[in-house]
Amino acid sequence: MIVWLGYYPVAGAAVWRLIEECFGTPVHHRQNPSFPAPDGGQQDWQRFYRQSSAADEIVFIRTQSPPDDGNPAIYVVRDGRESILAYYDHLNAKDPGSRTVIELVLGFNAHGDWSSHHRSWSLEERAATLLLEYESAVRDPDGALGEIAAFTGIRRPCLPWRAALEKLSRDDARFRCEGRYQWRPPEEWSPYVEAIFWRRHGALMRQLGYLPLDPTSDSCPATDGFERFINQSQEEIRGLAMRIAALETERRSLNRQIRAFRDTDDKRTETIHQLTAELALLRRARVGPRERGKG
Predict the structure, then answer these.
(1) pLDDT: is 79 or 145 the higher one?
(2) Which residues of 78-104 are buried (b: 16+ CB within 10 A; e: fewer)?
(3) pTM given for the model
(4) 40: left (phi over 0), alpha (psi -120 to 50) or beta
(5) Domains assigned to the chain
(6) Three-state DSSP class for 66?
């Protein structure tokens, strides 16, 4: 039997790695061109799919595409901001400058936007689906392990999840998560990106319990302006995104200069105060003997 492991690109890497470590079973990739055959050779996807569907044991297959059938599925959901940035880093590591953050927020990529991807695996459409929160799985691995075991019915001995997590975290910083998860935007995530993101994905984010840094603020741009923006071509949006990124870089540079000027001003002020105090001491030292002589 197939159990799908679905997630937005890159966002669920920790979970499939941990499933392999804990259950001692491979998690196959849907997009692999060939799969191991029982005779030691290779087989194509269609043959592998038929054999896996008919198998008595569970066969995990990870995918970033919409589900192919009604087989049980584990869908890893992660904060949309983190998901998009993880995908952004992955794409630009392979091909620098290939995508802007704005393009991925709006879904200009092979897998679509974050909200649409989640809806394709929605519990409303697929009854046999376990929604697994990425942050909870990394923060409370034993709880996640229990959810997966209960959902799949796996009873085989396995490596404790926390031990597997610690093993992976020694080699990969992505698996290190301590304390309560809290979003911290990097430089790429400008206020403009934040506004577009919440206008596009705010409904799903709040439904899943993810909130902006300031939950009381309205970070969404005006509806008319947003609609005009997203109705432009991808090339026009990319051009605007690049201009915005350049302006953000210039803004950060100016802010650094302002901080440097303030630091210099503070040091000069401190020096003036110090010299003033020393001058006062010198004056008192000179006045003191004359006053004592007059007595």
Answers:
(1) 79
(2) bbbbbbbbbbbeebeeeeeeebbbbbb
(3) 0.72
(4) left
(5) 2-185 (3.40.50.300)
(6) coil
Q: Which residue has the higher pLDDT, 295 or 132?
A: 132
Cβ contacts of 4 within 8 Å, gap of 6 or more: 61, 62, 63, 67, 68, 71, 72, 73, 74
* Residue type at 115 in one-letter notation: S
pLDDT above 60 for 197: yes
CB atoms within 10 A of CB 117: 23
Q: Supply φ then ψ for residue 267, to 5 degrees.
A: -65, -40
What secondary structure does DSSP assign to 177-193, as a single string? --SS------TTS-HHH
Q: How far apart are CA 230 and CA 101, in angstroms?
A: 14
233 CB-contact burial (10 Å; exposed 0-12 / middle 13-18 / buried 19+): exposed
Nearest to 114 by CA among 239, 9, 219: 9
In 72-168 the beta strands, taken as DSSP E runs, fall at: 73-77, 129-133
Are the C-beta atoms of 21 and 88 separated by less than 8 Å? Answer: no
Residue 294 amino acid letter: K
**138 CA to centre of own chain:** 13
In this structure, of 74-78, 98-102, 154-158, 233-237, the range with the lowest mean pLDDT score is 233-237
